[in-house]
Amino acid sequence: MADGPRPFNRRSFLAASGLAAGTATVVTAVPGAAMAAPATARRAPGTLSGDPFTLGVASGDPDHDGFVLWTRLALNPLAEDGLGGMPAKTFPVEWQVASDERFRRVVRRGVAAARAEAAHSVHVELNGLRPGREYWYRFRVAGHVSPVGLTRTAPRADSFGPALAMAFVSCSQFEHGLFTAYRRLAEEQPDLILHLGDYQYEYKKGTYTIPGGNVRDHEGPETVTLANYRQRHAQYKSDLDLQAAHAAAPWLVVFDDHEVENNWADEIPEAGSDTPDAAAFRERRAAAFKAYYENMPLRRGSVPHNYDMQLYRRVRWGRLATFHMLDTRQFRDDQACGDGYKDCAAASDPVRSITGAAQEKWLLDGFRRSGARWDVLGQQVFFAQRDNTAGPVKKTSMDAWDGYVASRDRITKGWLDAKVRNPVVLTGDVHAHWAGDLKANYDDPNSAVVGSELVCTSITSTGDGADSDPANQPFLKINPHLKFYNNQRGFVLTRIGKQEMKADFLTLPTVRTADAAASVKATFVIEDRVPGVEQTYLRPYAAPKISARSDQDIIRETVENETARP
């Protein structure tokens, strides 16, 4: 008797989906699957000239009975018009959801329209599925079958479910390195992935360079038009490592600044912008938002309306966790005192807000109504105070919550007044791992610890970085509520249970080669009802034999790492 097909499991998922490193994205159907088409059908003349699934598949925004499925058709992802080389017509795209890896138990199927005016993107919003379950999904069009994706529903609203393996990432500048960290993240088999912004960058080739030279180049000009943003998203989505991470788990996404333009604020562009006047910037913002939605697994509630987009939202993971996904760009006041690290009185102006009044009210209402064990804020910029100057003068980042002190105080008071059981802030943006305690008053050493902040480094932005001993970081000496720092690329993988949240800070030694392994640099634990982070592991550091650097040199390098731009 001939051997049957080998059994599938989550570790064989990447190979089975066609997203193993170095493989093509064209996938034949899994044995026994009803969606399989004969070879002649898969290459039917006069339909599509090649594989249209060059951008992979994704899922997102899960709840207890459904999720969003996504794909976008593109024959030539780098086409200058942003339309992926697709004919200007609507294509019917079949989709399937199965409860098994071989698609022998297909539980839902249907057809979605991939329209030219939406860059042939497809969003399938599903409900009516069973809670707390894994599901496999795929698409087919014109005889071509997509890679297989793995997703899952959240637990029932009245149950905790098992511990949640949640990872979060940010800042993936395509030119600064290979997306190996995304590959390593997929291999960790998380249940849920949060992307906290700077998914793609706006710069043209040769503009934003790093020491040693960029690893690869952006196609096209700086992103300003809809065609520019569509092309840039397609270039990023063409990367097999990123595709693997999207196919491995559902994502919750929010943008930061580079999805539009560096350090924009509401309707105000950055200084020296390619779109300096208000009308031009609004048009640019509308183009960026439309392309962002087209390329992300978001629900229909996030469809942009001109230059406005509903991005902040709440995702519940049973009784275990509520994720409050924030938007700290679209409604913020302009950065105070001209941006940068400043000693700035205006940063404490009580009328200034980083969220806007409506989002702040929504968040505070969510705190009051929450019955979750863990209330998690998925957001973009550093929440805790970070003073970079020892002594009485306080210099902090005007782009972070430090530039909106009263806004931060109102949010913190809101979770205290609501008696939120375990508030945890997740942050990206700064291209380095950090962990710290959140305080009621950062200027009072005896002030109570009232929450915890975990900050992920970049996937690639600013290049390799270097390992270090956190004890040598002056920021931690100046700000004793900050407990950890590392400037290598990587991601954070958490395990959220009823008794604790454990966070592993993983790093890669380089993003210049595809074979770099990920390892844990540090582990922190947040115990139930005990605000603040507790370190349980730190990887030993062997200091290189170089001249000792001054605190001022380290501070300058730290600030440049997170703020350096063209």
What's the quick description here?
By secondary structure, the protein is of the alpha+beta class. It is about 15% helix and about 25% strand.
Written account of the structure:
With about 575 residues, the chain is an alpha+beta fold. Helices cover about 15% and strands about 25% of the residues. It has ten helices and 24 strands. The chain has helices spanning about 15, 40, 180-185, 225-235, 240-250, 280-295, 355-370, 405-415, 475-480, 550-565, and strands spanning about 55-65, 65-70, 90-100, 105-115, 120-125, 135-140, 145, 150, 165-170, 190-195, 250-255, 315, 320-325, 340, 375-380, 395, 425, 435-440, 450-455, 465, 480-495, 500-510, 520-525, 535-540. Strands 9, 10, 11, 12, 13, 15, 17, 18, 19, 20, 21, 22, 23 and 24 form a 14-stranded mixed β-sheet that branches. Strand 6 and strand 7 form a beta hairpin. Helix 3 runs parallel beside helix 5, helix 4 packs parallel to helix 6 (about 280-295) and helix 7 packs parallel to helix 8 (about 405-415). About 50% of the residues are buried. The model is unreliable at about 1-10, about 20-35 and about 35-45 (pLDDT under 50).
